[in-house]
Design a protein that fits this description.
The protein is mainly β and 203 residues long. It is 8% helix and 39% strand. It contains one helix and 16 strands. The chain has one helix at 186-202, and strands spanning 9-10, 13-14, 27-30, 35-41, 47-51, 59-69, 75-79, 84-86, 97-101, 107-111, 118-121, 130-137, 145-150, 155-159, 163-168, 171-172. A six-stranded antiparallel beta sheet has the order 14-13-12-11-15-16, with no helix packed on it. The longest helix has 17 residues, at 186-202. The protein is flat and about 70 Å long. The mean pLDDT is 92.
């Protein structure tokens, strides 16, 4: 009903289909209640609606999946959300991330896939974790492996295709959800829940 009354916008466009497939980094808006969210992953691999500011809702980050030429030799790139951007900057390569203006579809900035960049994992067991790229192992004919170190000092490895660059070492281009992408162990999680319960009981 809310969708049919045209109250929901995804990436700046009204969507009336309740089954519309919104995905990672999409901006979901409800103008009537003045709410806007970005779809990101939490550390348990679930989609989380992360509340964002008016300034941040105007852009999104898109990972470059393909870089090709048309039959008429026009260069273009295809991003993870299905966008086709013609005549991209020549420095943009596959696996880089582009900052796209939602209203115009133009590229505002480029985040190169490089060692030292801040990234979020979008697939696999480490989905939702945020860390710095430490090392990239290339395996011709197989999957390239990337080693990532999170803010609490834990290192983990994943496939290169699972890594989504979200910013420079200390400055993410988008605000991160609660927990800042640090995965807690079962014991740490239990301790945190007990602390919250104690604080609630004290009040």
């Amino acid at each position: 009903m809310i969708c049919m009354e045209k109250h929901i916008k995804v990436d700046g466009k009204v969507r009336t289909d309740p089954n519309f497939p919104a995905g990672f980094m999409d901006v979901v808006e409800i103008p009537k209640s003045n709410d806007q969210f970005r779809l990101v992953f939490d550390t348990k691999g679930r989609y989380a609606l992360h509340r964002i500011s008016d300034e941040e809702k105007s852009f999104k980050l898109c990972r470059v999946k393909r870089q090709e030429m048309t039959k008429k030799s026009i260069p273009y790139i295809v991003t993870h959300d299905g966008r086709t951007i013609r005549y991209p900057d020549p420095i943009i390569k596959v696996d880089d991330v582009v900052k796209v203006d939602i209203a115009t579809g133009k590229v505002l900035d480029v985040l190169k896939f490089e060692i030292g960049k801040l990234c979020m994992i979008t697939k696999g067991r480490n989905t939702g974790r945020v860390g710095t790229i430490l090392h990239v192992e290339t395996h011709p004919g197989s999957f390239d492996i990337v080693t990532v170190k999170d803010a609490s000092g834990n290192s983990f490895s994943t496939r290169k295709e699972n890594v989504f660059v979200v910013g420079l070492p200390d400055t993410p281009y988008v605000t991160l959800p609660k927990g800042k992408g640090i995965k807690l162990s079962i014991l740490e999680e239990r301790e945190m829940i007990l602390k919250k319960r104690k604080a609630a009981a004290a009040n």
